[in-house]
């Protein structure tokens, strides 16, 4: 008992010292603790060039490829740097009013309004834009300045023409612990905003009621032959677009919100992939009249027509007309 009581103050003193040391450690470590929850402890900002490349070619996407009124093209690109408390868009979630109007008609007013509100709450850093691309294949680019408190990048580009389809990335982290990534390349797939039920690129406006969640469009889903991206022979769609984000040594003198003139030397070579498109034909018509002399029997015909011409070595179209032997109608009468 004696020993214990004499040791207790010593233990208490040691304990207090330990607690103090631990507290001091955390107090000094605190500035390094990321406040944005994204783990970015990089010391300063990083300058990047973002290049968007469209790969939407008639070779890769032959089905219903929009050639005119309007031809295949890309809207302006909208990007935001932000922290984990902001979402521009998210697969499996419903589209915000801003995402809906951008995905359906390419209007950015609502998106920009929401981003401005988010900037006030300091969840969004900077919004960036590029001009649109008047073609399915092409580049657009912008400079970006990323800061440690907003290391995530989200962006959207609308496919034109389309009901509510877009490509994009959601919360791509350009920071890796205490350093900024040097180069990031991402292949992009089309997404459906869930607000318009059109099946094809040039479907008329057809609101989805109630709205559905944002979903990825694949070669199998939506599982409907009329869908513009339905390629049952493909396991997955070829990338319809890609982004390449490259860190720049210098810090931009001023932030340019729109610039389409900066293209780094190392742009991906044009990817060429030809997607086979099988011929599609209608159902057979009903049989025509049985015609012919009663002595030799008659012949009747039925026809079908081409719904979709084959492309890129897809299956050729089958016979469009078929004939069959039959007993002419007037001969049946004669026998009776
Ligand atoms: Ca849709």
From TrEMBL:
Keywords: Cell adhesion, Disulfide bond, Extracellular matrix, Glycoprotein, Metal-binding, Secreted, Signal
Molecular function GO labels: metal ion binding
Domain of life: Eukaryota
Primary location: secreted
Cellular component GO terms, alphabetical: extracellular matrix
Domain Spondin positions: 36-225
Annotated PANTHER family: MINDIN1 (PTHR11311:SF33), SPONDIN (PTHR11311)
The protein's name in its UniProt record: Spondin domain-containing protein
Organism: Poecilia mexicana
């Amino acid at each position: 008992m004696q020993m214990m009581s004499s040791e207790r103050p010593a233990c208490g003193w040691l304990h207090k010292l330990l607690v103090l040391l631990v507290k001091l450690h955390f107090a000094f470590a605190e500035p390094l603790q990321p406040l944005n929850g994204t783990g970015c402890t990089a010391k300063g900002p990083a300058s990047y060039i973002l290049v968007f490349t469209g790969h939407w070619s008639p070779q890769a996407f032959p089905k219903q490829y929009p050639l005119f009124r309007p031809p295949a093209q890309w809207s302006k690109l909208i990007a935001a740097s932000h922290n984990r408390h902001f979402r521009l868009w998210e697969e499996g979630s419903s589209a915000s009013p801003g995402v809906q109007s951008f995905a359906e008609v390419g209007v950015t007013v609502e998106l920009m309004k929401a981003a401005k509100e988010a900037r006030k709450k300091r969840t969004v850093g900077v919004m960036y834009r590029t001009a649109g691309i008047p073609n399915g294949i092409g580049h657009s680019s912008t400079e970006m300045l990323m800061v440690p408190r907003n290391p995530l990048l989200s962006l959207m580009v609308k496919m034109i023409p389309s009901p509510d389809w877009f490509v994009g990335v959601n919360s791509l982290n350009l920071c890796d612990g205490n350093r900024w990534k040097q180069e990031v390349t991402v292949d992009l797939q089309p997404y459906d905003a869930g607000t318009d039920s059109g099946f094809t690129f040039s479907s008329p406006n057809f609101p989805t009621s109630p709205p559905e969640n944002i979903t990825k469009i694949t070669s199998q889903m939506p599982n409907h032959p009329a869908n513009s991206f339905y390629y049952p022979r493909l396991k997955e769609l070829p990338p319809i677009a890609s982004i390449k984000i490259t860190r720049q040594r210098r810090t931009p003198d001023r932030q340019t919100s729109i610039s389409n003139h900066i293209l780094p030397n190392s742009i991906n070579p044009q990817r060429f992939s030809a997607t086979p498109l099988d011929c599609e034909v209608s159902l057979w018509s009903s049989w025509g009249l049985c015609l012919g002399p009663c002595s030799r029997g008659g012949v009747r015909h039925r026809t079908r027509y081409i719904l979709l011409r084959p492309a890129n070595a897809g299956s050729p179209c089958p016979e469009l007309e078929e004939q069959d032997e039959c007993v002419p109608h007037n001969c049946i009468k004669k026998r009776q």
